[in-house]
């Protein structure tokens, strides 16, 4: 039985894939300006994808400037509707799956990554055997919207590292406070669906979140492209926000990705300021997550950055939620995401001091998504082992943005963690 891309050696299946590409409205609207050839290769077989202004060409050759190579078994998993962890996206494959390689023109890949993702989605769809056109997203649909209609916001002035910053914050409800910290390059809108979820209110909790300087609705803190986040600035902003907002009681601190890492810093630096800390997608150090293409003159950052992010989400996460994460990152502002990554995968390194966290002063739980290939569950588990009293749990079916990409499933993990920590 053919495996991997060899399945498309059958003419009817290859023709079906070609027809889907030719009729796809998303490709038709986004192809103008495209020019590039990409080969997917396995031992004894290859397919070249040629992108042009008006069409997607598929041929049984390996003549391409950019080549993606793996075994047939790896590609077999990649082509499933819901691939296994780290097999769901090219960037995940390259970072975490031995036996996969990407060679050739990296710039052209960065310029066309959104088009390739759609072409691969159409390949997956062609394998389902249905005659229906491919939906806009292969992710499951929520079916109903969950807008946050109760959030109330205001601006506060913070002081950090000797200067003032005007930032926007908002909260929904007056129950036991959770202070949510958004991820790199995004903003506090990531918490809207969590704020609106009745399960959180019924459990007696309410979320407050704020936009870092130059993020979302907060005033810019630097000239475009000059933002550079570091540990001291980040920590001081959080602590001053706690003072400026005026919580009725100590908040529970919640973050993911770079904000999960600063949660660990808060556990080191100021545990007495928080009732508990939930650090998601966090470890003592994350390497290899810097990219030149998020701030490159020949790459559209409003497309590349959210596509770089897209692969960090689980394929099971609802289409509406994933689309919001993508859109927030597309709106991130010139140099904002790269400036945050200076902290996330550069400045942040607590390998020589993570063991000093005293969980007797503030309970600490680490939660990490199964599909996260940046800070893997194994990374977080290894960090938790070094912290006496810390708890760790892997979140199955979730990726790198738990409270934004799948808030209802995230609550299945968050609510027990809150109960264990705070009673």
A few lines on this structure:
The protein is an alpha/beta fold and 423 residues long.
| Oligomerization state | single chain
Query: What is the CATH-assigned architecture of the largest domain?
Result: 3-Layer(aba) Sandwich
Q: How large is the count of helical segments?
A: 15
Shape: elongated
- As a percent range, the share of helical residues equals 25-40%
Please write the string of helix (H) and strand (E) elements: HHEEEEHHEHEEEHHEHEHEHHHEHEHH
* Overall pLDDT confidence: 95
The radius of gyration over CA amounts to 22 Å
What's the SSE blueprint?
Blueprint: H1 11-23, H2 25-30, E1 36-42, E2 45-51, E3 56-59, E4 66-69, H3 72-78, H4 90-96, E5 101-104, H5 106-126, E6 152-160, E7 163-172, E8 176-181, H6 192-196, H7 198-202, E9 205-210, H8 231-245, E10 252-256, H9 258-269, E11 276-280, H10 301-310, H11 319-330, H12 336-347, E12 364-369, H13 377-385, E13 391-395, H14 402-405, H15 407-422
Parallel strand pairs: 1-4, 8-9, 8-10, 10-11, 11-12, 12-13
Antiparallel strand pairs: 1-2, 2-3, 4-5, 6-7, 7-9
Helix pairs in contact: 1-5, 5-10, 10-11
Description:
The chain contains 15 helices and 13 strands. It is α/β, with parallel strands linked by helices and 423 residues long. The chain has two domains: 4-126, Nonspecific Lipid-transfer Protein, Chain A; 152-422, 3-Layer(aba) Sandwich (Rossmann fold), CATH 3.40.50.1820. It has an eight-stranded mixed beta sheet, with helices on both faces. The termini are far apart.
